Amino acid sequence: MIPRTDPRVNIQAPNAAFAAKLSTTYREFLDCMLRCLADTLRVLHINGERHVTQKLNLLGISGSLRAASYNTYLLHEAARCFGDCTFEMANIRLPLFDEDLEAEGIPADVITLHSQILAADAIIIATPEYNKNLSGSLKNALDWLSRVKPQPWAGKPVAIMSAAAGGTGGVRAQYSLRHCMTTFNPRILQAPEIMIAGAGKAFDDDGRLVDARTVSFLATQMDALKAEVARG
Q1: What is the rounded CA–CA span in Å between residue 92 and residue 110?
Q2: What does pTM read for this prediction?
Q3: 211 lies in the same domain as 119
């Protein structure tokens, strides 16, 4: 046996890159274990049927950064229609995706967003339409999330909606968002589609939808989202 003081023994501390990778792997393992434990406590299987025993975690992601955003208003209306749940809004005010910045380490806000998606039972996304496309801030968030493991979107129930000033209500933004999400393989609802046209007149001063029929459509979409969650 060679003593530790022997000059032939060359014990070196791991370099920073290895240490960071080890830390990330350990964090991912803990996240996985915590999610499994949470699911076990929240969901019971009785006679082959899945029963939710605790509030569902609903995450909202707005493609608009504006404080009085119609799309953010829409997400809060959707959460009210969803019913009893734990609802939180994500922050996508992130630095522009940059591989040089990535090499320095994934930004903390990206890690937080990644963890929120992993912990969510369902996700609602509302995007404005900018130049016939989804918003740049939302696309940037998706680009960052694609660089963090494990991939958080796979199999997640997701509902998409939009509010826009134009007459189409953001239909092109929704289609571009669906295209961007394809690579992540979430379970995106196909119907009903929620597109709020003339958004400036669709909400009152408190951010509530003024049209009862629109609220009914939104409630139908949230019922469909809950049904998708119940599928497991």
Answers
A1: 8
A2: 0.78
A3: yes
Query: Is residue 46 classed as helix, strand or coil in its secondary structure?
Result: strand
Tell how far CA 223 is from the center of its chain. 19
Q: DSSP of 118-164, one letter per residue?
A: HH-SEEEEEE--BTTB--HHHHHHHHHHTTSSS-S-TT-EEEEEEE-
Whether residue 52 contacts residue 42, with contact meaning beta carbons closer than 8 Å, is answered with yes
Angle formed at CA 86 by CA 82 and CA 91, multiple of 5 degrees: 100
> Do 67 and 175 reside in the same domain of the chain?
yes
- State pLDDT tens for residues 138-167: 999 999 999 999 999 999 999 999 999 988
- pLDDT (tens digit per residue) in 115-146: 999 999 999 999 999 999 999 999 999 999 99
- What SS3 state is found at 228? helix
Q: Which domain holds residue 36?
A: 15-54
